[in-house]
Amino acid sequence: MTETRTLQFESPRTLQLLYANDLKLLKSLEDSLGVKVTTREGWVKLEGEPSRVDKAQHVFDQLEKARQKGVDIQKHEFNYALNSVNEAREEDLGDLASIKIVTSPRKSPIIARSGGQRNYVEAIQKHDIVFGIGPAGTGKTYLAVAMAVAALRKEQVTRIILTRPAVEAGEALGFLPGELEQKIMPYLRPLYDALRDMLEPEEIERSLARQIIEVAPLAYMRGRTLNHAFVILDEAQNTTTEQMFMLLTRIGPHSKCVITGDVTQIDLPANKRSG
Is 104 in the same domain as 225? Predict the structure, then answer.
């Protein structure tokens, strides 16, 4: 038995926002769920077996719920909703928008793009020390920087410290030409890139000048006590056990520390054990 069901939306523009105005995404929904999808002026018609039409409607319900919560729906978000229906997940796309990270009044809030990212953000909210382990491209560093900026905005901390080991230079930066900033820039650029996505350029420069935000190689953390700070150690798989111990013992009262890394990308010498 074939069922035809029509879903009505506020306007044609509202409907287009649900599939990023990309008809290829609707085609992927048709192929995945085995339904026919037709769109016109603010409505979408679903045709197919009743159970398949139910699933297709559930996808659109998820997308609309997420849109109303401020989610910018692109290919990733559309596919997340589609996959969550196909896999009968308990959480849906709208649930991901329950946590918004506000880094600047001029920038859109940052939200988790997967259940794993949401769990990661919640862990950072609840715990003083968090390890984020996973492959490149999963948002470990980006979300950690976003949480740090948000904490600074809320005056939960008084400074942000971003650090990573300069393994390629063996941390013997004194042998490289140029001033300290020039020497370490290649190793710290990913952290600067994340900051630029979240803050205005002049705000970054002002915060760096006043040392409210500090970006430095791990070797320069030795001997310090980091109070009221949000510390992010990036590329932690390239720390030795001694370096990891050194950093963790630097964390003082009212501070948070997020340690990110990918255990499949260790660049240490063979005789060095990753921390």
Answer: yes
Q: For tokens 């659109």, what's the residue? A: 60
Identify the sign of the CA torsion 7, 12, 14, 19: positive
- Summarised one tens digit per residue, pLDDT across range 217-243 is 787 788 788 899 999 998 888 888 888
- State the residue range of the domain holding 76: 3-95
Pick from 3, 39, 13, 28: which is nearest to 86 by CA? 28
Domain of residue 32, CATH code: 3.30.1370
Shortest CA distance to 123 belongs to which of 149, 108, 144, 154? Answer: 144
Same domain, 162 and 222: yes
Angstrom CA distances, 235 to 68, 99, 147, stand at: 36, 26, 18
Question: Tell me, what's the pLDDT at 220?
Answer: 78
The rounded distance, in Å, linking the Cα atoms of 62 and 269 is 48
